[in-house]
Amino acid sequence: MSQSERLVLATRYRLVSELGQGANGTVWRGHDELLDRAVAIKELRLPDELSEDDRVVFYRRTLREARAPAQLRTHNIVEVYDVVIEQGRPWIVMEMIEAPNLEQLIEGSGPLPPARVAHIGRALLDALDIAHRAGIVHRDLKPSNVLLDGDRVVLTDFGLAFSSGSASLTKTGHFMGSPAYVAPEVAAGEKATPRSDLWSLGATLYAALEGRPPFERHNVMATLSALANESIPAPQHAGALAPVITGLLEKNPTRRLSHARAADRLERALTGPRRARRAETPRYRVMVVIGLIGATVASCGIGATALIVGMTKNSGSSPAPPASDPPAPGVPAGVASSTLAVRARNATCKIFVSVPGGVSTVLTDATLVEGEVRKYDQPRLNAVIYDASACDVWVNGRQKPLGSPGERKSYSLNRAAPGD
């Protein structure tokens, strides 16, 4: 165990395990021993070449900007609990969300369908609108800062990325931001504004639809050059979202879509497919033989003076039922005596398993190899299956049904309660 993993911050936040690293620090799984709950802790680190004055500015900015999003109580923004100064640097204590981020989803599953991207975009737009009304600019909106917890879309790292007023080049030439998602005016040295967050939203949605951001190149300088000099490549898979994407990625911020106009276009993209789906009748078609005479149409039904409707089966055979999942191999040995057993159906079977208590003990936080089996016999367990279609799961010897692709399932298990 590393020195950091033995660390307890402010006598209450214990670091449990590392979740990931980024340009500005490390995110840890933690445990709040005072309130007995899981938390996420971001350890912020600075580039070694920063001067002492820059470090002081950074610390002050972190404390100020961490307090602001802590006041934003909304479903789509991660909750900030605390800021702690330990070992000479800030640590941000946040809500723990057991969910993959959008970047991981894109890398693992490829581009997302427009309907799902529209849902993500609407939620992020709502989060930005609330923050901007409170005078807070995110500055670093990108797929890795968007968590997808089932239908919940959560924007993280509000105002916590070091920027010295904006994401720009420092005196040493080191880019302090995410160049593939930064607005052109910010890359040129101007101050970040709500409109620059809307550009970053457009680049994030573009990446979700196309698999990569619009101006990403092989290094920072090439990306910035493309951002400044090249036209936006037309999205190929946006469908009804194309007007939203191109409007958000308008290089001139004064012509860029506003919150209200972006919301209107997203609503159109969301409601259009739904109307089409409601119009479909998979097993029958409706033929109106005599027109509607003096009809009144209400949301709950149709009233008419004369209406003759013929319901006929579609020609040909009935639609085939949905294909079932391929049969899985036999039950692994030892499942009957296990509190939990998991077998990877494919390479996207990611699991998190821990033993609850005063200090949570992490047993597994990994993606399993196809066919790999993990069995646990502890009487009490907490488990998260990140893709319920990718893992066979047995709880107290009983197999659980498969879920949908990308569906996340959580279990609180007790051997004394079969069927949990």
From TrEMBL:
Its keywords, alphabetically, are:
ATP-binding, Kinase, Membrane, Nucleotide-binding, Transferase, Transmembrane, Transmembrane helix
Q: Where does the Protein kinase domain start and stop, copy by copy? A: 13-270
InterPro entries reported for this sequence: Kinase-like_dom_sf, NEK_Ser/Thr_kinase, Prot_kinase_dom, Protein_kinase_ATP_BS, Ser/Thr_kinase_AS
Q: Which SUPFAM superfamilies match?
A: Protein kinase-like (PK-like)
Chain segments annotated as transmembrane: 284-309
For this protein, the record's Gene3D superfamilies field holds: Phosphorylase Kinase, domain 1, Transferase(Phosphotransferase) domain 1
Q: Where does ATP bind?
A: 42
Q: What class of enzyme is it?
A: transferase
Q: Does the keyword Membrane apply?
A: yes
Pfam entry (one): Pkinase
GO MF annotations, alphabetized: ATP binding; protein serine/threonine kinase activity
Q: Where is this region: Disordered?
A: 398-420
Q: Does the keyword Lipoprotein apply?
A: no
What are its E.C. numbers? 2.7.11.1
Q: Which family, according to UniProt? A: Belongs to the protein kinase superfamily. NEK Ser/Thr protein kinase family. NIMA subfamily.
Full protein name: non-specific serine/threonine protein kinase
Record the organism. Answer: Actinomadura litoris
